[in-house]
Every structure is written in C-alpha cells, then in structure tokens.
C-alpha cells in the first residue's frame, strides 16, 4: 500500500461524503451571483454556500424547481443541517 493511498483524515474524509452533483449545482447557482467558489477548501465552500442561502433568504424556497428546499438540498449535499456551522469563528473581545 502506497502512503498516498492511506485512509483520508480530517476534511479529506468529508470530501468523500459530499454529494458532488448537488455541490456543483450550488456552485453554479451562487457563482453566477458574483460569488466565486472556485479554488476554495471544502469547509470554506460549504460555509459560503450556507451564508449565501441565508443572505438570499432561500432556505425554504425550492432548489432548482425540484422537490427539495435549499435547506434540504444543503443537508443532502453536505450531510448536516443548514443551521449547523462547521467553522467556529471567534470574534475579538471588545475592550469594554
């Protein structure tokens, strides 16, 4: 077994659980809106897609005129609900 073929770790393991077709649909949808998602890591793409869904108020709208809402398609694609954040960003504490 080659070292390159070892079991994936961390975000590489997440890549295998992502529905690539749905992710590409999200990328096409939001790239046309001025948001470039090409060349970003999976975590950053996922977070930007999540924010774009909330920003455009699409969580309950039907995704691509299909049977799923954007929130359901996101959950299907990434294996986690739209409300769940993966990356925790720490805000700087105020001096007050």
Short descriptors:
single chain, 96 residues, mainly alpha, 4 helices
Give a verbal description of the structure:
- The chain has 96 residues and is mainly α.
- It has one domain (11-78).
- Helices cover 44% and strands 0% of the residues.
- It contains 4 helices and no strands.
- It has helices at 11-17, 20-31, 42-55, 70-78.
- Helix 2 (20-31) crosses helix 4 and helix 3 (42-55) packs antiparallel against helix 4 (70-78).
- The longest helix has 14 residues, at 42-55.
- The protein is globular.
- The N and C termini lie far apart (57 Å).
Write the topology of this structure.
Blueprint: H1 11-17, H2 20-31, H3 42-55, H4 70-78
- Count of discrete alpha- or pi-helical segments spanning 4 or more residues: 4
Order of helices and strands: HHHH
Profile the largest sheet: none
Cα separation of the termini? 57 Å
Unreliable spans are: 1-16
Structural class: mainly alpha
C-alpha geometry: globular
Query: Per DSSP, what share of the residues sits in E-state strands of 2 or more residues?
Result: under 5%
Average pLDDT figure: 75
Total tally of structural domains: 1
Percent range for helical residues? 40-55%
Task: Please count the beta strands (DSSP E, at least 2 residues each).
Answer: 0
- What gyration radius follows from the Cα positions, in whole Å? 16 Å
